[in-house]
Write a structure and sequence with these properties.
seven-stranded mixed sheet, Rossmann fold, Metallo-beta-lactamase, Chain A, alpha/beta
């Protein structure tokens, strides 16, 4: 899109850049200073010389990026100033520690949302993280993962009931229920939805590692056992619920379990025939991204007169925004095409819906600059994890 010389955020090959503050937001290539909205792999890359994120996300970031990545934490609503730009982080409702980045400089306010969850059903939905908080601004940078009117999520209570009814039916038939969702964010939301009175709960080791960060942040999850895929489940655990990432179907993890019924939880399950094409017994429409009514309401609540749309159905949302009288355009980013977030849309579905599939290259994860040089940092006092 066309930008002006005084824009607070511009697009560079490394990612979204704030020239006044000399830092990036969710850059996909290594930089000196990065503000990261959340710990999903398409937004949080290793190799930055300074990385600032919401404090609740630091445990998952450390798990995913390794011990050598410098990290600094900022609480929701706390502010810091970087070269005259005031930065604050505000809840996005997406996953643990997910944040919108508010920037204020010379009387202008911009908000970069990262990924966020708002449901048109009107409930908070995701009990495993802070709910989305509308932030007033002049310019709003929004995702558009599910920016088509067909995407409308059910209320969380209804989703919980659907999942538990399916599990109960599996258990009554003596079968295990294997519920697949991404290990960070989706798996914890699924666990929080389960009724432990139905039967035992087992999780994949990858899910367990992320769960530890959630529990350390005070998020309540039901009791479970860790199943590493070695040998059969004990006879006393028949009819168990197993929560695991989607890749277990292809690596033999579920072999030896006996009768298993498979389900996948994703917003893409709302697409006709998606479940059958994936070979699932059941699909649950569960997303940690905003649906169409949620997107449009969230944008309206910001009061922004200018909206910049990223990763998803950009063209559809831009067209709708312009019809509402707003100034709207796109930033073509590298988000949304990697593991750790919603399962990517199939290529033929993207073509049918007119969704953009052009992405910037991921780049490398090598460190920036001389390792012996003085490390850059954000001008922050208080919470940090280095």
């Amino acid at each position: 899109m066309t930008t002006s010389g005084d824009d607070l955020v511009v697009l560079r090959p490394q990612g979204l850049y704030c020239p006044a503050g000399d830092f990036y937001i969710d850059p996909w290539r290594p930089v000196d200073r990065a503000v990261v909205t959340h710990a999903h792999a398409d937004h949080a890359r290793a190799g930055h010389r300074a990385l600032l994120a919401q404090v609740d996300s630091l445990g998952v970031l450390r798990e995913r990026l390794g011990p050598r990545q410098p990290l600094q934490g900022l609480r929701y609503g706390e502010t810091l100033t970087q070269r005259g730009v005031t930065i604050s982080l505000h809840p996005a409702g997406h996953v643990l520690g997910s944040a919108q980045v508010r920037l204020e400089h010379a009387g202008r306010v911009w908000v970069a949302s990262g990924d966020y969850f708002v449901s048109g059903a009107g409930d908070e939905g995701n009990a495993t993280c802070e709910p989305f908080e509308p932030v007033r601004c002049d310019t709003f940078i929004t995702e558009s993962t599910f920016a088509l009117p067909i995407y409308r999520w059910a209320a969380q209570a209804e989703l919980n009931a659907q999942i538990n009814r399916w599990w109960s039916a599996c258990a009554a038939d003596g079968a295990h229920a294997l519920l697949m969702g991404y290990s960070f964010g989706k798996a914890q939301r699924l666990l929080a939805a389960l009724d432990p009175s139905i039967g035992p709960i087992l999780v994949h080791p990858t899910v367990d590692r992320i769960n530890r960060a959630y529990r350390a942040a005070g998020v309540a999850l039901p009791p479970y056992r860790v199943f590493d895929g070695q040998g059969p489940v004990a006879p006393g655990l028949r009819g168990a619920m197993l929560v695991a990432p989607p890749n277990v179907r292809g690596n033999g993890w579920a072999q030896g379990l006996g009768e298993v019924r498979h389900a996948f939880a994703s917003g893409w399950m709302q697409v006709r025939n998606r479940r059958q094409r994936m070979g699932m017994d059941r699909g649950f429409v569960v997303s940690d991204h905003a649906d169409w009514p949620g997107l449009t309401r969230a944008i309206a609540d910001t009061g922004a007169s200018r909206v910049i749309v990223t990763h998803g159905y950009e063209d559809t949302l831009v067209r709708w925004l312009r019809e509402q009288g707003l100034q709207a355009g796109t930033f073509r980013t590298a988000y949304g095409d990697g593991p750790g977030d919603e399962e990517p849309v199939l290529a033929d579905e993207a073509a049918t819906a007119g969704r953009s599939t052009d992405r910037e290259p991921r780049g490398t994860t090598a460190a920036v600059g001389d390792a012996d040089a003085e490390q850059p940092t954000f001008d922050i006092r208080g919470d940090s994890d280095t």
